[in-house]
Design goal:
This protein has one domain: Methanol Dehydrogenase, Chain A, CATH 2.140.10. The protein has 3 helices and 36 strands. It has about 500 residues and is mostly beta strands. Strand 24 and strand 25 form a beta hairpin. The relative contact order is 0.15. The strands form 8 sheets. A 7-stranded antiparallel beta sheet has the order 24-25-26-27-28-29-30, with no helix packed on it. Strands 2, 31, 32, 33, 34 and 35 form a 6-stranded antiparallel beta sheet that branches. Strands 1-7-6-3-36 form a 5-stranded antiparallel beta sheet. It is about 5% helix and about 40% strand. Bound molecules: fe (ii) ion (FE2). Fe (ii) ion binds near residues 128, 174 and 482.
């Protein structure tokens, strides 16, 4: 099946300047850095089993309108300087040596060994995203260990793990959330114990962090992301739960993720935590649901309502099926979701007053149920009301990867879809032009041309949603996870 090309192993590492077919906007002078599983092969003919365990590969696309760096690019006016590289982590070295036993879900080691690993030496196969934390570019995964990456060369400079006095955990939300108004980054970690705890921190500029608050739970949930508004951190505690004590029972073996059990009777708790005081101000419940990605969140009605958009996965039990074998066969139901809006009524009281049980409520609104994956909004709208959501267009249920990118208007329900030939698309990243309407800017996405067995970067105009430029890559890149656009990572003329 054609989709399987997106799950192949790429061994090719390149640093090259590429011609742009079309034109880049003059203001697009930064870099898109993407991250994902680049290879599933390990030494001695072995391979990882789970998509999330592929070895971290980063891809940098540096935009150079007018080719100010002066690199030869076949006469094109504009250039994109491309670099892809495996992150040279301990996990990568282990894979070369044939000793890699996975991090997330691969391997036959006992769960006890796996948990011991989480407590003593977290894995560093940081293949999910690259985020800027102060002056560092950190590749992240779901362990508390991050890899510091040079944004130009994609070489590994260091690895970081917090070891200060603030509480910390063993499992980390892969996605940080940033408030663009203050620049503050928030992170959520789960500390396993007899009573387990979700710890919320604000990351400070000097690599340190400030403990915001903690929320206790009797059975930790698998949470890949959370929501952030100007005043609140919102945890959606899905009923995909683990009993931490089960880690220590003898005889239980298997992938880490498979130890989380779908317990729909628990429903879903929405924990709203004050960003300043750390107080749990509301914890309404709704029915059982699951999702990986919170799209965006904001407050309205004078701060009495917290609104967040979440991509829900209709069949939560399908996340057991993210093995490479399953995905390569085209069973992609765990990847595709739908856009839902959740409205938390805080009970009509603002501030840090504690609400009594049952005063706060949450209601759900289905917004787009025709299939999405990896939804995003303009970073200029983070923590603020947004009109547009961008996502891969992926049928649900589906046996095929995303054949389009969509732009969903949350105000009118209108949908614009971009597609080209039979290309398969990755996560769309919106880059705002600065000023003008919310959709003034471009959408960057990497497409996989199945027929040509090559990938290309596609630049889509945000307003018209028409193609504006494309750049052919020298190889077929496997499907990756997430990217960020960094305006400050720019092309430099050779001297
Ligand atoms: Fe993610």
């Amino acid at each position: 099946m054609a989709t399987s090309l997106g799950f192949h192993s790429l061994s090719d590492e390149r640093a090259t300047s590429l011609a742009v077919d079309g034109s880049l906007p003059a203001w697009l002078t930064g870099s898109l850095i993407r991250n994902g599983p680049g290879s599933f092969s390990i030494a001695d003919g072995q391979a990882v089993d789970h998509w999330f365990d592929g070895l971290a590969m980063c891809y940098r696309f540096t935009f150079d309108p007018g080719n100010r760096a002066g690199t030869a690019v076949d006469g094109a006016d504009d250039a994109v300087h491309y670099r892809n590289r495996f992150l040279d982590t301990d996990a990568y070295a282990d894979a070369q040596a044939g000793t890699f036993d996975g991090g997330f879900a691969t391997g036959e080691s006992t769960l006890r060994e796996r948990l011991a690993g989480l407590f003593t030496e977290p894995y560093d196969n940081t293949n999910i995203i690259v985020e800027r934390v102060a002056d560092q570019y950190r590749a992240l995964t779901e362990s508390p260990r991050a890899t510091v990456v040079d944004p130009n060369t994609l070489t590994v400079a260091d690895d970081v793990q917090y070891d200060g006095p603030e509480p910390s955990g063993q499992l980390v939300c892969a996605h940080l959330k940033r408030d663009p108004a203050t620049g503050t980054l928030f992170t959520v970690e789960t500390e396993f114990g007899r009573t387990s705890t979700y710890h919320i921190h604000a990351l400070l500029g000097d690599g340190d962090r400030r403990h915001v608050g903690s929320v206790e739970t009797d059975a930790p949930a698998y949470m890949h992301s959370f929501a952030l508004t100007p005043h609140y951190v919102v945890l959606t505690e899905f009923p995909l739960r683990v009993n931490p004590l089960s880690f220590f029972k003898p005889g239980r073996q298997g992938p880490f993720i498979e130890q989380f059990e779908w317990q729909p009777d628990r429903g879903t708790r929405v924990a709203v935590v004050d960003r300043t005081s750390g107080e749990l101000v509301a914890e309404p419940r709704t029915e059982a649901l699951f999702g990986f990605h919170h799209v965006n969140a904001f407050e309205r009605d004078g701060g009495t309502e917290v609104v967040f958009d979440l991509e829900t996965i209709p069949d939560a039990t399908a996340i057991d099926d993210l093995s490479l074998e399953t995905l390569r066969q085209g069973n992609l139901d765990a990847v595709a979701g739908r856009l839902e809006r959740f409205i938390v009524d805080l009970g009509g009281v603002t501030g840090s007053d504690r609400y009594g049980p049952g005063e706060a409520t949450v209601r759900r609104e289905m917004r787009y149920d025709e299939g999405t994956a990896l939804p995003t909004v303009s970073p200029a709208r983070w923590c603020r009301p947004h009109q547009y959501v961008y996502a891969m267009s992926m049928d649900q249920p589906t046996t095929e990867w995303a054949t389009g990118v969509l732009k969903y208007d949350t105000e009118t329900g209108a949908v614009a879809e971009f597609s080209s030939g039979g290309d398969y698309f990755g996560e769309p990243i919106f880059v705002p032009r600065g000023g003008g309407p919310e959709d003034a800017g471009v959408v960057l996405t990497v497409a996989l041309d199945i027929d040509a067995e090559r990938s290309r970067l596609v630049v889509i105009d945000g307003e018209s949603f028409d193609e504006r430029a494309r750049v052919e890559l020298p190889h077929a890149a496997p499907f990756d996870f997430h990217g960020r656009y960094f305006p400050e990572v720019q092309a430099r003329a050779e001297t």
